[in-house]
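Render this sequence as a predicted structure.
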Amino acid sequence: MKLLIADDQRSLHQFLHTVVDWAALGIAEVQSAYDGEEAAELAASMEPDLLLMDIRMPGVDGIEALRRIQSLPNKPKAVILSAYDQFEYAREALKLSVSQYLLKPVDTELLEGALRELITGIRAEARSLLERELAHLSLAGRLPDERLAAAEQALGRLGIGRCAALTRMAGPEEDSASLRTVPVALRSEGTVLLPLLTGGGEGEQVFFAGLRVGVEREALCAGLERCAAAEDETSAVFELSRLTGSLREFPQLIAESREAALRAREGSGEAAPRMMEKLRCIRSHIDSHLEGDLSLQTVADRFGIDKFQLSRTFKQAFGENYWPYVTRRRLEKAAQLLCGTDWKNGRIAEATGYADESHFSKAFKKHFGMAPKEYRAAGAGPAAR
């Protein structure tokens, strides 16, 4: 959530920064303007969700600045701060859809209450928009660019940094009607789970699984473990896709999740639900620790499983042998770093679990058919310095 404060009194800005815990309110970015002209320009460039606006400022006043801001495609929720309790100001503010009108000196308790109320409303609107657009995206497979941008803005307003698709398939003794609700064990403060319509069979349900900024994949993995414990007698299957920061990829994530769930259900006779949850957590551990020691023995010891059992059940669950999976994920990350950073090969090798640059280069060329330097040039990534 982003906030713009527009007031010509610098002391007010300093006071608010001192006494208000913006992060506790869910506000991640705060910028300041000191006159109406600057406020209108900043509102256009930073696209704030919230606006605190003084009325009396030199040059362009607050009312005129609000008129200009009303023409923007993304209008912030505005709170007027004024030392003047006059009907004319209040009337003009109402015409400009101002949400709150607070008098100076600022009562921080009232201000925080007003901001909380507005943030709750903004998030409710964002969730509604996201649910609507996800429903279309999951059924049609795409969204027009303008609607996709609005949906991704809604992700930001909900504090969601990355997302995945989660498929839940009913066990043989489970009523498929129960799939229409989000399992209680999956819910947590760090995640946003929304059921989707995908046109799948009665025995399956797909969810949008959003991770709030700063929350790791393990939060979802822990929820899946709780589900396995709570629903052990049903043999229900849960399968999570990879994470992405772009909704454009989401239809592919749904396909990945459903395919993995089908494979897991087909292999459920040999890998019980609790084992499936452990395997999912192992895969999540691999994805999050590509730079570390991921030898079969080390990971088996960490998760309390026999290494031969891990090797066998990993292939059964995910359709790929353990070590080829580790190698593929490491090299995919290396490819991203080659095209997204200016890191040298030695640093990339270290970040992806390779002991030396030579071993890394050989493995990379074998997988992608070209050397890291050639891949970087072809991908138009930053050149190593």
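Summary. DSSP finds 16 helices and nine strands in the chain. Confidence is low (pLDDT under 50) at residues 380-385.
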